[in-house]
Amino acid sequence: MEVDGFKNLLGLDIELGAFTCIAGPNGTGKSNVFDAINFLSLLSDMPMMDAAQQVRGVHGERVGDPRDLFWNGYEANDRRMRFAAEMIVPLTVEDDFGRVARPTISFLRYELEIGYQAAVGLERIGRLRLLKEALRHINIGDAPSRIRFPHSAARFRSNVLRGRRSGVAFISTSEEHGEPVISIHQDGGSRGKPRPSAASRAPGTVVSTVTGSDDPTILAARREMQSWRRLALEPSALRTSDRFVDPRFMESDGRHLPGALYRIATSESGGDPRRIYSRVANRLAELTGVSVRGVEVVADDVRELLTVYLEERSGLRLPARSLSEGTLRFLALCVLLEDPGAVGLFCMEEPENGIHPANLPSMVRLVEELAVDTSDAPGGDNPFRQVVINTHSPFVVQLINPDHLLFASVGSRPAPDGTIARGLVLHPLVDTWRAGGEVATYTKADILPYLVAPPGAQLKLDLDAA
User: Fold this and answer.
1) Dihedral (CA of 60, 63, 66, 71) sign
2) More confident residue, 211 or 126
3) Distance of CA 75 to CAs 49, 66, 67, 70, 79, Å?
4) Which residue in 40, 18, 42, 110 sits closest to 388, CA to CA?
5) Could you tell me if residue 394 is inside a domain?
6) Least-confidence region, from 48-57, 129-138, 200-209
7) Are 114 and 221 within one domain?
8) Helix residue ranges per DSSP H, 109-229
9) N or C: less crowded end of the chain, CB within 10 Å?
10) How far apart are CA 32 and CA 40, in angstroms?
11) Are 414 and 11 in contact (CB under 8 A)?
């Protein structure tokens, strides 16, 4: 992913593996990476102004000014932000009318440039302008140099990269009379005329308008971006029972957890829901201080409610509303792990929050296992999931494979106006697969704060004095 001019992301070029952990102090801009991913996902599904007002919003609440998204947004005259994402899209998708569509090729590069137009007349707030949009194929022969994270070429790469493409892009941008014109090109390549439209007054991206199977590759890119989610599990949502008529997929805040677990247990268990419940309970039992004999979803036919219950070893049955916040978040991730339908990119802020230090190894192991195993083919037992977390916890850093780590700092970066500004820099560790790029690598000496106790730390208790 490449981002320039979005908040403090200036010339950022980040390679994400199946699992990535971004570690760094507060205030460096780690969360802005998640905001950029979330913004692209929202842009694939709604008008640009709606997407801008929902970035890091609360429960869909519209907040903020679109200038908040630009670097130096209130001072610059020419505000622009640029994005590029190279992605592997699903081999089969469904359009808004239930028809199956298959992309021409599954390895794509999406580019987007957005500007700002100041308020005029009676307007009190300016609007976002679509300046450039492009969707191109990446030759599968170039995959070894473009997909650098460790993976099996025979079992992983050959199963997710399919198809071929020659000729023009699926979406391209040209200029007429000084204004951008964006064209959609058919999947057949040169056959058929492109469909141009003026971008200057477009309320949303071209990708967001494709709903049918006539443009299957653009639709596949849209479905992929729609699957990029920022998990912000809220205790109040996790404690809520589901009505029988509620959706059976867990939302980003954890709502509909009972319905999701009920669906998985009844549809993925081979006729025995206890198998799924047992697996979830066994993972929960790893937590220190949690006495678990079993987990199940109870259907109340009178009130038409689904409720998650945990049974302790003592025989006491507790509804989800009685569980601690940390236990609820861990339970939600256990359910996500069991869900073959939960695919795409998942971003999680500081998953260690609310977790007892003794349970951090179990939490880290769980979030790592959520990601697809790139040594094997994706499928029902190996869902095609990508996971990105951020943290400032030394304990989490010490538990994670060095290949998965990126360290955040604030450094000098070229700004869109040609000046030098302070922006987020992400450093890989030396001798890992990301090393060798333009950004300086970190050594153990650079990450000592994550490896040793701070000066004056009390590492043991003087019980005799007590």
Assistant:
1) negative
2) 211
3) 20, 13, 10, 10, 9
4) 18
5) no
6) 48-57
7) yes
8) 143-146, 158-160, 216-226
9) C
10) 12
11) yes
Q: Angle at which helices 30-43 and 216-226 pack, to 10 degrees?
A: 140
Residue in the structure block whose two tokens are 């008008």 = 47
**Domain range for 196:** 44-227
403, 33 contact by CB (below 8 A)? no
Q: Is 391 helix (H, G, I), strand (E, B) or coil?
A: strand
Give the torsion sign (CA, 152, 156, 159, 163): negative
Give the pair of three-digit tokens for residue 299: 């259907």
Do 60 and 206 reside in the same domain of the chain?
Answer: yes
Q: Which two tokens stand for residue 308?
A: 């998650």
If asked whether residues 214 and 234 sit together in one domain, one would say: no
Residue 272: CB atoms within 10 Å: 11
| Residue with more model confidence, 449 or 459 | 449
Domain boundary among the residues 227, 251, 269 is at 227
Full-model pTM? 0.93
Structural tokens at position 239: 């404690």
Query: Considering the domain boundaries, does residue 194 fall inside one?
Result: yes
Using the 3D structure, point to which of 196, 227, 258 is the last residue of a domain: 227
Let me know if 372 is exposed, middle or buried by CB neighbors in 10 A (0-12, 13-18, 19+).
Answer: buried
Rounded-to-integer distance, Cα 70 and Cα 421, Å: 13
Return the number of other C-beta atoms located less than 10 Å from residue 309's C-beta.
16
Say yes or no: 178 and 62 in one domain. Answer: yes
Pair (131, 258) in one structural domain: no
Q: Reply yes or no on whether the pLDDT at 61 is more than 60.
A: no
- In this structure, the answer to whether residues 136 and 171 fall within a common structural domain is yes
pLDDT in tens, 163-191: 988 777 999 999 888 889 999 998 865 55
- Do 145 and 251 share a domain, yes or no? no
Looking at the 3D structure of the chain, how many domains does it have?
Answer: 2
If you average pLDDT over residues 213-234, what whole number do you get?
Answer: 95
Same-domain pairing of 205 and 79: yes
